[in-house]
């Protein structure tokens, strides 16, 4: 189907799941992870202010738009952030993101 992509999520314990995602409803990756029952606090509600939606992009990172200064500033505050870190709330999923693979890293408190 045109407006459906498949992404792979690796949880904190290493368990892995492929999820089919509709792209015609403008979901952020954070919203998708919460809707899929992953443990993501997202205390700021998606404003790039809490960093509890921290994910590490393992594949297809170049399908994502570049991070904003605000996202980069927030990632800078995380001791375990790396070059492939992103804030899931800042990533709107589009048809370009088919094959995205990521690991959940956000803090649980
Ligand atoms: S939900 Fe708070 S930074 Fe993403």
Automatic annotation (TrEMBL):
Residues 5-108 form the 2Fe-2S ferredoxin-type domain. PROSITE patterns: 2FE2S_FER_2. Gene3D superfamilies: 3.10.20.30. Its cofactor is [2Fe-2S] cluster. Keywords: 2Fe-2S, Iron, Iron-sulfur, Metal-binding. InterPro entries: 2Fe-2S_ferredoxin-like_sf, 2Fe-2S_ferredoxin-type, Adrenodoxin-like, Beta-grasp_dom_sf. Belongs to the adrenodoxin/putidaredoxin family. This is 2Fe-2S iron-sulfur cluster-binding protein. It comes from Sphingobacterium oryzagri.
């Amino acid at each position: 189907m045109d407006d459906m992509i498949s992404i792979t999520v690796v949880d904190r314990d290493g368990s892995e799941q492929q999820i089919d995602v509709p792209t015609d409803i403008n979901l952020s990756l954070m919203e998708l992870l919460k809707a899929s029952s992953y443990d993501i606090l997202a205390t700021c509600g998606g404003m790039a202010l809490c960093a509890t939606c921290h994910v590490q992009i393992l594949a297809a990172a170049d399908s994502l738009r570049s991070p904003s200064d605000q996202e980069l500033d927030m990632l800078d505050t995380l001791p375990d952030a790396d070059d492939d870190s992103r804030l899931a709330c800042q990533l709107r999923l589009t048809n370009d993101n088919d094959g995205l693979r990521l690991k959940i890293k956000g803090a649980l408190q």
